[in-house]
Structures
1.
Amino acid sequence: MFENGLKPLAIAVCFVLVALLWTFPLQHVIAYPFVFLFFGAIMGSAWFGGIIAGFIAVVLSSFLIGYFFILPYFSFDIAKESQSFFAAFILCAIAITVVSSARKRTENAIRRARDELETKVQERTAELVQSNHEIQESERQLRLLTEAIPQQIWRSDAAGCIEHCNQHLRDYTGREMDDLAGEAFFRILHPEDAPLYLQGWQDAVAIGGLFEEEARVRGADGAYRWFLARSIPQRSVDGAIACWYGIHIDIEEQHRAQQSLIKVQDDLSQLSRTMSMAEMAASIAHELNQPLTAVVTHAYACREWLRSESVNMEKAAATAEKIVQESTRASSVVSRVRALFRKDTQVREPADMNRLIQDLVRVLRDEAIRREIAIRLDLARDLPRLKMDQIQIQQVMRNLVMNAMEAMTHSPQPREIVIRSAKHDDGRIEVTVEDRGPGVAVDIVPRIFEPFFTTKPEGTGMGLAICRSIIEEHDGRMWAENSMQGGAIFQFTVRAQQ
């Protein structure tokens, strides 16, 4: 009641009374002082008391002006010549009341909104400060945890740029963080492992998937040890990658044990192949012995029938027919042996030649290290995916790389194998395997792909022949030549299969 009744009335009375008291002395100095004084009283009442106080001031001012300052004086009657003036005063007073009260309400609303905004800003600022403090504390705890774990741990940003390495990693490499940030991190890897490691890391960052790769890391003493690198992306609430955390696990001992196991397996495999070849040779000899003996016997008989004084053409023809039968039998024996090594159905699927080469290098990396041989890749980009038997093509490349390794057994350091891929305009893909060995003697280059031709004491002479057959089945060609820098170059092409 006070806010809506007594307070507006008190404010209006106060302002109007002040205007009245000032009007009496000022009317002897200036003309019509009551106009601006009462307008001021009305404006003040509306400003401080609201629209109700303003209208009360309008009513009070109208009565006082009409009684004291408009003819006839001391009467509520308004002279005719002053009625227009009095009406204009009332209308202006009402307008001033409405405008002043509206302006006051607007300013009050703005002030309240500003106060509320400041309050919300202060609350939000306090929340942000608290949130930042919690984030900093969480990061500090995480950093302490990474330092406490006895593993080599690193962190990168969402784009894959290394930002932090824990103390264990820095101590092992003997480097400070400035020497490990960004691209410098990959310099601690062995030069032969860095390309595969970097390619795998870029692929993982591109697709946002898991990263896992084995590589040799250089320690502070200059020695390399094998580590298994693993990394997973950390995502924010909206699913975007915020950063990556990676770890290096020392697998040097496991790798040495694996190399020893691989060597034993190779020895057993070689022994098994030798025994299998011996069994196959014995089987072929046994199977071919009878038909070949029969062929020789019938051939001698046929010759005797033809040399006799009275040539017996009937018996000679019959004997020749038996020779044909025994030869056909021998051919069927060879066909059965070939069937053991021929697949009835061939699986051709689209494949990436560069990926096959990279996978092969990973498989043969331990063998190359054991033989102290470096494998360098020079792969063309954007190779077309061709339909091929991936197992057969990879077996061809494996045979060529293993032959290159064996050829460099007694070669001086550095020993290196270079594997290249190239694209031809007609859709063919060309693969080159180049070594730094003694090369191939010029006189045997034309015969090197012939079956059972070999320069190795323990060789069977079938490896390159089988390789050439596989390549020709893929509508390709294989050839060999010597490098100008020394060593042999084996090349083959494969073409898109329809």
2.
Amino acid sequence: MMTTALVAIDSTILATAVPTIVAELGGFTIFPWLFTVYLLTQAVTVPIYSKLADTMGRRPVVLVGVGLFFLGSVLSGAAWSMPTLIAFRAIQGLGAGAVQPMAMTIAGDIYTVAERARVQGYLASVWGISAVVGPTLGGVFSQFTSWRWIFFVNVPVCLAAAYLLRRHLTESVEHRRHRIDWTGAALLTVGLTLVVLALLQGGQAWAWVSAPTLGSFGVGAVLLAAFVVVERRAAEPVLPLWVLGRRLLGTAALISVGVGVILLGLTTYVPTFLETLVHASPLVSGLTLATLTMGWPLAASQAGRLYLRLGFRATVVTGASVVVVAAALLALASRHPAVLTVALTCFVMGLGLGLVATPALIAAQSSVDWGQRGVVTGANMFARSMGSALGVAALGALVNGLMAGRDATADPARFHTAATAAFTGVAVAAALMLLVALAMPRTPVPD
């Protein structure tokens, strides 16, 4: 729960301070990289950490993650420009790549499927508390002190998490020789980085039809194709293709991609949308966004009862349907922005996501044994992180294209159009997620 708090607080505390950070450091057109580089480094390291966790144990991996998150937080708080802040956020992402999936994997190790229904309530409470604490602290720091404390506040949480893990987490691990697929990891990292770079810089630093943009897309695609070839032949692939080949695991991963797109799409643009168009304070915009992560744990805490009674697929389809309706309402409501309307739609969307993310992950975990659970959980978290990274990049490209390099505060009318387009993109992602949920197999819930 303490390690989960690191990621949970970070998911909401930064977004509220983006306008303040941009005002001090500049770089409005590249600020989406604050989220993208974090998610990208998190995503590409998740499979590596997950493989190590299945061979070395969970505790050493999660402790390394906490240490890297600590280092990235201290450096981010001392950043002197937008590029340096983006670089230090990458280090935070390296830590988060171990922290988030290991917390979920450890919960899967300790508790049965039936017990996880109750435990998810405990873990969800962390997100609920963070949903209030994160935006509140982000708003208070950026409005009354300094945005730098948004990162420094992670220091005591990291220290507490490391202490509790070393003191209380014990595990019996059968150590064996292992080979890390560094070639596959490098191909995945560079390939995804080039694709995200093309999405964010296309139409801004480079024209869409230009050598840098087309070259980045092309080389990125070739490297990702090479990654697939390498994974087929690797003795211990960093991302085993069987994880995506099974229907249950594949649909669960695609659902996580949709969750990532929706979650970070809203986290990135809702606060800036409210602060620019209705002149909401950072504190108010943060609390408005917090309704999303308040609805999520409320639903997640009850998801166990639903999937034990109705099954995994029915629960996920129900949640995805709620998300589609709420996303469509948010896209429509953005034409006439109001804090209360945005808060209500985000809350309902959080309820839907809580019924989607948790049952889909537990369904995937319950289909494998201990030795594969780390990889399966990691693949699911990897999919969510990649959905977040690519989603933010794609939405950032859309918004930047419509803004044509203009500052949102200087041209609010154009930003209004751009934000509405971004929320419409979120609604499209929600609809695609529902279609994938309908394709999820009817899997019996284990005793």
